[in-house]
Structure formats: C-alpha cells, structure tokens
C-alpha cells in the first residue's frame, strides 16, 4: 500500500470513528506547522493501526480510553469518549471501564474521567445525539 492509499484509508476510518465534523475541522485547520503531522496521524494511527484485523473498533475504543485515562490526556480523552459511541460502546461499558481504571490508574484519574464523561453525556443529550 502506498502512503497515499494508507492516508485515504486512514481518513475513512478516522471519519467512521471520530465523525465527519471532527475530521473536517482538523482538515480545515491545516497549516504549514501541522499539515505533515495531521497527515502522519491519518496514515499511521488511522490508516495503519486502527485498520489492523486483530481488534475491532469497539475494543480499540475501550483500550484507547483506558490508556488516555492513565496518561491524563483530557482533550484526547474527551474526543474518544464521544467517538466511542460510533463504535458501539455503551454508557454502561464506559462506566465500567472508568470504575476499573480506578484500580489501575488511580482514584483521581478515574474521578476526573467520571466528571469528563458526565460532561460529554450531558452535551450529547442536549444535542440529541448518540
């Protein structure tokens, strides 16, 4: 597969997982500083890793959220909490993931994520989406 084919495949998966609005904002915000980085993300993260056959997108979403909780990456975590619904993850599954993360990532990380998840849920409920 060429880099261009991998990029196109990555953009397709990125749109499926994160939604068109998010990807469109990312592409509209391209600049000389971030253009190569955004291309790299699309090719490598989405076109290479998220397309591997060993895990489905539901499982990848859950793993990604768990790692972002552990790393305390709030902006990315919020994005992936919202995107998880595109992959069939339920609110109950997210609740259990956050509860489980309290053991392995710590109570402060789980508590912060519980608040962040509630914020995402409230935003989604207000917009009538999920």
TrEMBL record:
Start and end residues of each Carboxymuconolactone decarboxylase-like domain: 36-118
SUPFAM superfamilies from the UniProt entry: AhpD-like
Assigned EC number: 4.1.1.44
Keyword terms of this UniProt record: Lyase
Example GO molecular function: 4-carboxymuconolactone decarboxylase activity
NCBIfam families in UniProt: decarb_PcaC (TIGR02425)
Protein name per Swiss-Prot or TrEMBL: 4-carboxymuconolactone decarboxylase
Species: Pluralibacter gergoviae (Enterobacter gergoviae)
Source organism phylogeny: Bacteria, Pseudomonadati, Pseudomonadota, Gammaproteobacteria, Enterobacterales
